[in-house]
Every structure is written in structure tokens, then in C-alpha cells.
């Protein structure tokens, strides 16, 4: 049985191969199911709540719900020593990749969180992109992790996972490598506590960010997701996500 994109990424996360998938990405898209982005594809918070919920084995699930915040619709994430993801399967060819725009707001930073450390890898907000690629280029370590994911979930881990995150202290535009594999990279788009409790909006060039993080052109985008987690630090995190758009 083929497991979906998010479930496979979830296994990766539990193996220490954090994300989506997006920390365990889901099914590879079927032929003929490519999504052409001629203008823009948008997901409102109400749409995001309908994405596939990805539970991580052995973890309490983060609670997601749609609320009104500052007179706008928002997807609220409430993590109490928990971790889980909402994800959407896609298949967008590399030549169609453009700009990703998104917005979020957090209540507070997670004390003690450090996304470069295995046992402290929590974040109040994550936007996750999963990519296909040539797994024959994997190092021996990554090939082993991919094979383990394949055995446990029926699919190899994504070729590459790129996350946009809010970090406690690293400078904006820093790239943080996952402590267990270089196939998961995180780009810091917000840092510190200066802009808590306000809506923040970002526009990112997917191709440029991928090349910055991985040093090569991207393959097809096969999934997008979001995740708020506080399981490693055994703490509480509350955040809100706005609309997500692929231009």
C-alpha cells in the first residue's frame, strides 16, 4: 500500500529526518496529475484545515482550527508538547516554480528551542516544501535513511525538504541544516521576539531559496504543508497562519 506524502514525511521526522512533509513526505504524484501554476494557486485558512492531517507516531497531535484574528480568517495552531502537520500533495514542475507568499503570527517564542539540535528542534511556525529528485545522488547515510523510510512507510523520504521557520536567535536568511540529514534545510525568515503578536507577510522565490539551501536547481515540488510543534521542549506554542499562495 502506498502511503500519502505527509505520512512518509512524518516517518522521516520521527527518524530524525525532520519535516513534511514535509518531515516524512507523502506519495509521489501520479503521471498526468501535474498542477500548472499559470497565475496563482491560493489556499485560505479554511482550505488549509481540509489538508491531510499527518500524525507523527508516538506524538500528541497539535490542534488546528479556523478562527477570526484581527478581523481576518486564520488557521490557529495550538501545540501542547505536541507535533503534527497539515499537508497538501502537489506536483509542480521545476520550470513552473515561482513565488511563494504566506503570512503568520505567533504569540511567543518557544523557550529553549534550537532547530540545529536534535532534542530541541521545535518551532512555533513552519511552512514546508517537499521536492522530488534523483535519489541515486544520496550519500550512504541519506540512502540508508531513505531506505528505512521506504521499509517503514512504503515510500522513500523526499529528495529534499525546504522549510521556512521562525528562529529564536539566528539572523534572518540563515540556513539551518537538520541535525540528522542535509536533505532537510531550514531558512530563517523571522528571528527573535521583536515582532510577536502581529501579522507578518513574506514573499519568497522558491527556486532561489532552494538553490541557496541545497546548491543545485530544484526538482518538482511534490508537497506543501505547515506545522507547529513543541514536543521536544515539552512546552506550549500558539500561532496563526494566513493565506498561502503560489504565484
Summarize the helices and strands and which ones pair or pack.
Elements: H1 5-14, E1 41-43, H2 45-48, E2 52-55, E3 63-69, E4 72-80, E5 83-92, E6 99-106, E7 126-131, H3 140-153, E8 160-167, E9 175-177, E10 184-191, E11 200-205, H4 206-214, E12 221-229, E13 236-246
Parallel strand pairs: 8-10
Antiparallel strand pairs: 1-13, 2-5, 3-4, 4-13, 5-12, 6-11, 6-13, 7-8, 7-12, 9-10
Give a short summary of the structure.
Helices cover 15% and strands 37% of the residues. The protein has 247 residues and is of the alpha+beta class.
Structural description of this entry:
The chain is of the alpha+beta class and 247 residues long. The chain has a single domain (37-132, 160-246), classed as Jelly Rolls (Sandwich). It is 15% helix and 37% strand. It has 4 helices and 13 strands. A 7-stranded mixed beta sheet has the order 2-5-12-7-8-10-9. Strands 1, 3, 4, 6, 11 and 13 form a 6-stranded antiparallel beta sheet that branches. Helix 1 (5-14) packs across helix 3. The model is unreliable at 15-38 (pLDDT under 50).
Amino acid at each position: 500500500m502506498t502511503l500519502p506524502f505527509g505520512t512518509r514525511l512524518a516517518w522521516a521526522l520521527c527518524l530524525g529526518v525532520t519535516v513534511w512533509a514535509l518531515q516524512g513526505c507523502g506519495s509521489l504524484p501520479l503521471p498526468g496529475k501535474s498542477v500548472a501554476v499559470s497565475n496563482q494557486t491560493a489556499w485560505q485558512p479554511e482550505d488549509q484545515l481540509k489538508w491531510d492531517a499527518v500524525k507523527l507516531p508516538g506524538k500528541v497531535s497539535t490542534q488546528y482550527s479556523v478562527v477570526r484574528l484581527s478581523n481576518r480568517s486564520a488557521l490557529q495552531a495550538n501545540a501542547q508538547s505536541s507535533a503534527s502537520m497539515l499537508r497538501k500533495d502537489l506536483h509542480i514542475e521545476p520550470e513552473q516554480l515561482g513565488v511563494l507568499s504566506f503570512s503568520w503570527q505567533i504569540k511567543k517564542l518557544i523557550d529553549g528551542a534550537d532547530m540545529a539540535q536534535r532534542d530541541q528542534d521545535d518551532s512555533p511556525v513552519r511552512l514546508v516544501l517537499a521536492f522530488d529528485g534523483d535519489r541515486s545522488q544520496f550519500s550512504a547515510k541519506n540512502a540508508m535513511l531513505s531506505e528505512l523510510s521506504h521499509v517503514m512507510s512504503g515510500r522513500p523520504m523526499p529528495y529534499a525538504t525546504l522549510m521556512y521557520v521562525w528562529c529564536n536567535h539566528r539572523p534572518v536568511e540563515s540556513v539551518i541544516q537538520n541535525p540528522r540529514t542535509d536533505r532537510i534545510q531550514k531558512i530563517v525568515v523571522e528571528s527573535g521576539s521583536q515582532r510577536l503578536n502581529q501579522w507578518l507577510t513574506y514573499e519568497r522565490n522558491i527556486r532561489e531559496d532552494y538553490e541557496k539551501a541545497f546548491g543545485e536547481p530544484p526538482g518538482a515540488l511534490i508537497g506543501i504543508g505547515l506545522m507547529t510543534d513543541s514536543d521536544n521542549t515539552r512546552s506550549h506554542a500558539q500561532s496563526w497562519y494566513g493565506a498561502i499562495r503560489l504565484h
